[in-house]
Each structure stands twice: as C-alpha cells, then as structure tokens.
Design goal:
The structure holds two protein chains of two kinds. Chain A is mainly beta. Helix content of chain A is 0%, strand content 57%. Chain B is an all-beta fold. Classes of the chains: A mainly beta, B mainly beta. At the A-B interface, strand 5, strand 9 and strand 10 of A face strand 3 and strand 4 of B.
C-alpha cells in the first residue's frame, strides 16, 4: 500500500531564517505531487504541483519554492521566512492514472 | 476561487444520517465531484468522488443530481468521530480548490 510522509511535524522558526520541508511517498512510482498551505482558520491553498522529476508548477507568487529531486520526494523551501509564511503545510500525492489526491499528515510551521 | 457552495455548519445527532449538501452549478462535463473531510489538526481525508452516477463506499454515499448541478454526501450513521470540516470540490483531479467547507458537529 502507499504511504506519504512529511517531516518535521511541527517547526518554529525565526523571521528571516531558511526553511526546508520534506515529503516522500512510498509504494508508488511517478506520482503527481502537491504542496498546499492552510493559514489558521482558512481553507487549503495550492502552492505547487509536480508531474515528474524536476517539473514544478507554481500556483501563486510567494516567498517559497519547491523542488523534486527524486521521483517520490518533494521539497518545499524558503531562503528567508516571513511572518506570513506561518501555517499548516500539506503534501499530497495522486496516482498518475487516477483522479484522487491523498494527503499527508502535514507540518505545522510557526514563524516568530 | 472555489466553484462550490456549502452551508457553513450543520448539526447531526449521533447515530442518525448526516446529509451534507453542495451546489456546483458551473461544473463542466468532465469534472468530478470530490468530498474530503478534515478533522482538527490533521490532513484532509479523502471520502468519495463521482462523475455522474451515485457512488457508495465504506465511509459514505454520494448522490449527484441528474443535471450534476448539486450533490449530497450521506454519512449513514454519524458518530462523534465524524465531527469535522467537510469539503465539496469539483475538479479534473490535478488541482483541488478548497472552499470553506461545512463544519459538521455530531452531538450525543
């Protein structure tokens, strides 16, 4: 069966510090991968998605970037965090040939 | 922007059926209707999806109107653990646009 991992589960970072969040999927190959963010009390917003290694599509301009160095690895990064980057970051995957996305457990980021 | 409209909140008695409505009047012919739920502090959980026909799985049933402009998610016997935010989404699958959803409160 397929499993999606995210780490860390929680993170507290100072403003201006760098960020690296990692997402990995097990038990599948060539998945579509997604990063979402959920601000406190708000709905989920799609940030990036990837259909293959090195292929990244950005949905909103922002302080963040994404990379996909391996087939089942998706990384969310920032060079300098802003207060507004605080939120709940969720990684999701979708089998290439099917319709449904499945979400990971999320990383809760607090920027102080 | 989300292309669906849901009531902001609903209450349901434990053990009774919970019927969550969703309007999606601008749905296109090849868009699916997806339902997810999010329990506090967790990632969204996939519930069910459908294109035209009604669907049922171990979690819920999805009833889609013939014109596809609205749908209803049915939890047949709601439990306290079903308390969550329920999201109705129309999509081809690659991009999910989440709205505010419906807060379902199951009460004993």
């Amino acid at each position: 069966s397929q499993t999606i991992h995210q780490w860390p589960a929680t993170l507290v970072q100072p403003v201006g510090s760098p960020l690296s969040l990692e997402c990995t999927v097990e038990g599948t190959s060539n998945p579509n991968l997604y990063w979402y963010r959920q601000a406190a009390g708000r709905g989920l917003q799609l940030l990036f998605y990837s259909v293959g290694i090195g292929q990244i599509s950005s949905e909103v301009p922002q302080n963040l970037s994404a990379s996909r160095p391996q087939d089942r690895q998706f990384i969310l990064s920032s060079k300098k965090l802003l207060l507004s980057d605080s939120g709940f970051y969720l990684c999701a995957w979708r089998p290439g040939s099917r319709e449904t996305q499945y979400f990971g457990p999320g990383t809760r980021l607090l920027v102080l | 922007d989300a292309k669906t409209t849901q009531p902001p909140s609903m209450d349901c008695a434990e053990g009774r059926a919970a019927n969550l409505p969703c309007n999606h009047s601008t749905i296109s012919g090849n868009e699916y209707v997806y339902w997810y739920r999010q329990i506090h502090s967790q990632g969204p959980q996939y519930i069910i999806h459908g294109l035209k026909n009604n669907e049922t799985n171990e979690m819920a049933s999805l009833i889609i109107t013939e014109d596809r402009k609205s749908s209803t998610l049915i939890l047949p016997h709601a439990t306290l653990r079903d308390t969550a935010v329920y999201y109705c989404i129309t999509s081809y699958g690659n991009k999910l646009v989440f709205g505010a959803g419906t807060i379902l409160r199951v009460k004993s």
